[in-house]
Amino acid sequence: MSRAKNPEHPVAALRKARGWSQEEFSKMAGMPRSSLSAIEAWRLTPSVSAALAVARALGCRVEELFEAAASPGPRQGGQVLWAWKATSGAGRYWEAEVGGRKWLFPVETLPGVSWAHDGICHGEVMKESRRSDASKTLVMAGCDPAAGLLAAEYAAASGFRMLTFTRGGGAALELLRQGVVHVAALHRSTEERPERNAETVLERLGSGYRLLRSAEWQEGIALPAADAISSVTACAQQVRQWAMREPGSAARECLDELLGQATVPEHVVLSHQAVVEAVRSGWAEAGVCVRLCAEDAGLRFLPVRRESLDLCFAVAMEGDPRIRALIQLMRSREHRRLIGELPGYDERNTGELVTV
Description:
Blueprint: H1 10-17, H2 22-29, H3 33-40, H4 48-58, H5 62-66, E1 75-76, E2 79-80, E3 90-98, E4 101-106, E5 119-122, E6 125-128, E7 137-142, H6 147-158, E8 161-166, H7 169-178, E9 183-190, H8 196-204, E10 209-223, H9 232-238, E11 242-243, H10 250-259, H11 272-281, E12 286-290, H12 291-296, E13 300-314, H13 321-330, H14 333-340, E14 345-346, E15 353-355
Parallel strand pairs: 7-8, 7-9, 11-12
Antiparallel strand pairs: 1-2, 3-4, 3-5, 5-6, 9-13, 10-12, 10-13, 10-14, 10-15
Helix pairs in contact: 2-3, 6-13
């Protein structure tokens, strides 16, 4: 394509409108001037982190700057862009736009909700099964067992699709850092350490993020219904076979604190629901999870601590219609009522927004 056919890049147009030179703006965005020059000349598609930095410096959304420059499909250098590695060379996928790029997400079982796949990919050959708008899908990673309820309410209220991938807090934040999800959920804040979620985000991601309160909930120990153990202390002393979460999850951290040491289990489970299934099936005597899962499974529950569940997203994404719809839903009376009716959940601070 000749240079005459290329319109001025939105980054260049906005930079000039603000009266900044390339040298000045490259310092503001924290990137080499040569990279900025290549972006403005349509020769370089920035990484997700670089795109977010540029958008943040200009005070606008990533999509306003790079959507026009995005490839027509989820490819780069001719290769399919998977958000993370698919389990096989051929598989179903969902498609979503994150950070100005279109990504393929391997289909997996999502909590409480089922979305039709968008297509099938065989190696580098994509076959669409249905037409979908990648810009109308919000991607979230976290371990809230009620995420399916959130996705259903979100779709009904906004018309947007929400993909809720089950990941521990540490893994969810890593996906957010990589720029392949819009939102990461974490629940490290407790009554004793209410700033723990913000501290974790600062430590792992840095500043420039928002925390949207989803709920407070009770985390504790799930036991068989007939188990006679009556206290948390007795559990820590008597239980020999725990259903343990993966390192980096808040539930695993809670258990390590209860036992007074970091444990190295032979096997780990990857969700609150998996903990209760392990206890209910009998291969574990107990496990740490949220009250909702334990009660729904008919297990006993001994509360250990109250935690704050926050949804983390980049400040640069706050103007995105999908994020705005999420905030609006969290603050709606109907959604707060539903959250308050879940066992162990407290909705009194749902919808609060803080900056990290």
